[in-house]
């Protein structure tokens, strides 16, 4: 069975555990990149969620892994509210896949 994993600061991701999402707490950019790479290599993981605050520190790694793997890597906001990183990244991915910015969020 495929798993969903969320990466982020413990206090932001802990609630996801109650709905069956595996949590990977991180504190630094190096921890985030390492955990992201390890999780992307795990064949049992199908979806990787990463909090905006941590994703902003390693967008280049996220882009690289999206190009190398079929896993869905999605950026999610935290309780502090959205910084719109997830929407910007989603728009880029859709534009890359479709060839046009269909969301109109430039």
What do these coordinates show?
- By secondary structure, this protein is α/β, with parallel strands linked by helices.
- 46% of the residues lie in helices and 21% in strands.
- It has helices at residues 10-17, 29-41, 52-55, 59-68, 85-98; strands at 3-8, 22-25, 45-51, 72-76.
- A four-stranded parallel β-sheet has the order 2-1-3-4, sandwiched between helices.
- Helix 1 (10-17) links the parallel strand 1 (3-8) and strand 2.
- It is globular.
Note poorly predicted spans: none
Give the end-to-end Cα distance, rounded to a whole number of Å: 38 Å
- Coarse shape: globular
Total strands: the figure is 4
Strand content: 15-25%
Main sheet: strands, sense, barrel: 4 strands, parallel
Q: Based on helices, strands and strand pairing, what is the structural class?
A: alpha/beta
Rg, Å, rounded: 13 Å
What is the average of the pLDDT values? 85
* Order of SSEs: EHEHEHHEH
- Main sheet strand line-up: 2-1-3-4
Helix content: 40-55%
- Distinct helical segment count: 5
């Amino acid at each position: 069975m495929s798993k969903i994993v969320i990466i982020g600061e413990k206090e932001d991701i802990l609630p996801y555990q109650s709905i069956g999402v595996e949590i990977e707490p991180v504190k630094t950019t190096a921890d985030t990149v390492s955990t992201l790479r390890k999780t992307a290599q795990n064949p049992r993981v199908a979806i990787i969620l990463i909090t905006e605050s941590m994703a902003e520190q390693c967008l280049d790694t996220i882009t690289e892994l999206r190009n190398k793997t079929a896993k869905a890597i999605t950026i999610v906001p935290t309780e502090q509210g959205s910084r719109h990183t997830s929407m910007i990244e989603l728009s880029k991915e859709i534009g890359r896949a479709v060839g046009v910015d269909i969301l109109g969020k430039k």
